[in-house]
Amino acid sequence: MYISGICLFLNLLLQMLYSSMVLNIKLEKSLGAMEKQAKGASSSYTKLLEEHEIVQKQLKKLVGLDGSTDMTTLEKLLKENATYETELATLKKTAAASESAIAQVKKQADSQSAAYMKLLDESTAQADQAKEVKDLHAQVLELKKTINDVTKDRDALKSQIQDYDFMFAEAKKKAE
């Protein structure tokens, strides 16, 4: 009876421990998700603040133009516009120069590629010719070997014929 009570008590403790661990894991995951959400919200909030400040500055400039007939603000804006136009013109010139430089580099690359391909073709042709020369050289060596073998066979046959002639000459002399 005491043993069953202790077992039930331990079972209850283990179930409570398991449920608390599961709850802890769920809370950690939700905390991580909330932190990510908070970081995203704070970054978007700072972006909105920056945009708001820019809009406020532009609004102040426009209100300054409409509200006052002061020529200094208009002149400042015209000067600012003129500087932006000159910067734009210089940037267009540098862009055009860059594009022409890119076109020139492309032409050089194309010509170098064509020259490389030509050299590669010539190299391949020379390699093929060298292979043909090696093959012909091997054939010549084989023919020389064959000629030497045939010459040796001819000399051997000549000596055999001379031996037979000598033997038949002796046999003819004996027969006469």
What does this structure look like?
By secondary structure, the chain is mainly α. The protein has a domain at 1-68. It is 97% helix and 0% strand. It has two helices and no strands. It has helices at 2-67, 71-175. The longest helix is centred in the last third of the chain and has 105 residues, at 71-175. The termini are far apart. The relative contact order is 0.02. The mean pLDDT is 90. Keywords: Coiled coil, Signal. Residues 74-108, 133-160 form a coiled coil. Residues 1-19 form the signal peptide.
Number of helices: 2
Gross morphology is flat
Order of helices and strands: HH
Q: Summarize the biggest pleated sheet.
A: none
Helix share, percent: over 70%
> How many E strands?
0
Distance between the termini: 145 Å
Low-pLDDT stretches? none
Structural class: mainly alpha
**Hey, roughly how much beta strand do the residues contain?**
under 5%
Specify Rg, calculated over alpha carbons.
Answer: 52 Å
Kindly state the mean pLDDT as a whole number? 90
Keywords: Coiled coil, Signal
Coiled coil: 74-108, 133-160
Signal peptide: 1-19
